[in-house]
Design goal:
By secondary structure, this protein is α+β, with helices and mostly antiparallel strands. It has five helices and eleven strands, in the order H-E-E-E-H-E-E-E-H-E-E-E-H-E-H-E.
């Protein structure tokens, strides 16, 4: 399930979000920019992908197994790591509140400030999102994204720059992991391999690197 987690999610728990052409799948663009192809995609699979996104359309492939054909333009080629729970001391956080659709404007603004990764108008529908407020203002948040069967990815963990250094992100990660474990799934996450500080923090919390991955955005031929 973790070798191609977007495919496992889009053909499993997140199938209701999927747009498909042949073997190529993607999330509805309002939900998430991610897409998926079969393991070791063939020329026909790439043709399906081109039909799915249209001429000049882009695919965000979160875990690349094979590089795109030469006629596709690669606009992002980012090394990353996939991490998995190996002994998290999970706990519910009394200050963490569940976020809802009415919170999306505030969540979008926090993402704009901190840039933890893509967040769309309906990303909140992918799973549970939690946040911490101070004086009514959202200052930290995190949530659930990819859901390959048996696993749930923690994502969009971010803290307002004025409130960093107080462990809010760690608390939200452990709260989310507690919720994920409670329903029987295993917490996972993906991180930019260059962000050694974040990876070190996740390792201190109890994650381990499962494998190196590649995040790629490719654009279809015109």
């Amino acid at each position: 399930m973790l070798e191609n987690p977007a495919l496992a999610a889009l053909t499993g728990p997140h199938a209701h979000f999927a747009q498909r052409h042949g073997a190529a799948l993607r999330y509805h663009p309002d939900v998430c920019p991610m897409a998926a192809l079969p393991d070791s995609p063939t020329a026909e699979d790439w043709s399906d992908a081109a039909q799915l996104v249209g001429p000049g359309g882009s695919l965000f492939l979160p875990v690349v197994t094979n590089r795109a054909p030469a006629e596709w333009d690669t606009t992002m080629d980012l090394p990353g790591v996939q991490m998995i729970d190996a002994g998290l001391d999970t706990r519910a956080d009394d200050e963490a509140v569940t976020l809802a659709h009415e919170d999306v404007p505030e969540m979008t603004e926090l993402v704009r400030l901190t840039r933890p990764g893509p967040f769309r108008p309906r990303t909140i529908e992918m799973g549970t999102y939690v946040g911490i407020r101070r004086n009514g203002r959202l200052i930290a948040m995190g949530g659930e994204r990819l859901s390959p069967p048996g696993y749930t990815e923690i994502s969009a963990v971010c803290t307002d720059p004025d409130h960093r250094g107080h462990g809010l992100a760690s608390r939200l990660v452990l709260d989310l992991a507690h919720r994920i474990r409670t329903r029987g799934d295993i917490p996972i996450l993906h991180a930019d391999a260059r962000n050694v500080g974040a990876i070190r923090l996740y390792e201190q919390l109890g994650f381990v690197v499962r494998r190196e991955v590649l995040f790629q955005i490719v654009t279809a031929p015109q």
